[in-house]
Amino acid sequence: MVEQRRPHLVVFTGAGISAESGIQTFRASDGLWADHPIEEVATPEGWRRDPERVLRFYDQRRDQVRWARPNAAHKALASLEKRGFAVSIITQNIDDLHERAGSRRVLHLHGEILKARSTVDARMHYPLPRGGIRLGDLCDKGSQLRPDVVWFGESVPHFMEACETVARADLLLVVGTSLVVMPAAGLLEHTPLDAPCVLVDPEARTLAPPGTAGLEQPAGKGVPALVRHWKREGRLWLPETLLDEA
């Protein structure tokens, strides 16, 4: 007897889903970059000029992540996985809120703030269960540790893996992202032709690309609403009534 394939939901999340847990976004007027120019704290050049400033900036962000808690959207996605759906999460976020909510398959495109990595070997990662990184903290090869994040101007190491995951989707759910950060925004181009795509965002009607359904709600409201429909039906589909009301 051939086992029926489980519905595969691929979720692509951005800063909007974490903002509802109290983590500041990059692009808001009061966001992370308001007092920290990007070129000074999030580029290889800034790191070479003033590594101590960069480390202080990421220590502050790390503390913010540790205080944050998963919200209703994170929890809803984890509950769908427990119900038997195959759920793959691709996130632009560097926090661990998806994992803390219970999701098991999470791919971080831009790295993980609660890890350090070697400056000479990007494969060498070190968890940071507490504290931060200081000048003089070295990897096993004797090189200074840096935040395990992808800075502007650096390649996205897991991008091809993310494309392959999207290509196996039965439905693509995009949550809380403006879809302007490349190359991540190009993931939608790899969605199978017969796989629906829905964007959950307060500005979904403006941001949704052609062919993408929009649910104009914050993540903490829109994602749980969709998950309730999918659990009840046991399949992935776009509830037209819900989308029309958004």
TrEMBL record:
Substrate binds at Y58, R61. Residues 1-233 form the Deacetylase sirtuin-type domain. It comes from the Bacteria. It is found in: Cytoplasm. It catalyses: N(6)-acetyl-L-lysyl-[protein] + NAD(+) + H2O = 2''-O-acetyl-ADP-D-ribose + nicotinamide + L-lysyl-[protein]; N(6)-succinyl-L-lysyl-[protein] + NAD(+) + H2O = 2''-O-succinyl-ADP-D-ribose + nicotinamide + L-lysyl-[protein]. Signal peptide: none annotated. The active site is at H110. Its EC number is 2.3.1.286. Keywords: Cytoplasm, NAD, Transferase. NAD(+) binds at residues 14-33, 92-95, 176-178, 219. GO terms for cellular component: cytoplasm. It is an enzyme of class 2 (transferase). One of its GO terms (molecular function) is histone deacetylase activity, NAD-dependent. HAMAP family: Sirtuin_ClassIII. Belongs to the sirtuin family. Class III subfamily. NAD-dependent lysine deacetylase and desuccinylase that specifically removes acetyl and succinyl groups on target proteins. Modulates the activities of several proteins which are inactive in their acylated form. PANTHER family: NAD-DEPENDENT PROTEIN DEACYLASE, NAD-DEPENDENT PROTEIN DEACYLASE SIRTUIN-5, MITOCHONDRIAL-RELATED. 2 residues (Tyr-58 and Arg-61) present in a large hydrophobic pocket are probably involved in substrate specificity. They are important for desuccinylation activity, but dispensable for deacetylation activity. This is NAD-dependent protein deacylase. It comes from Halomonas urmiana. The gene is cobB.
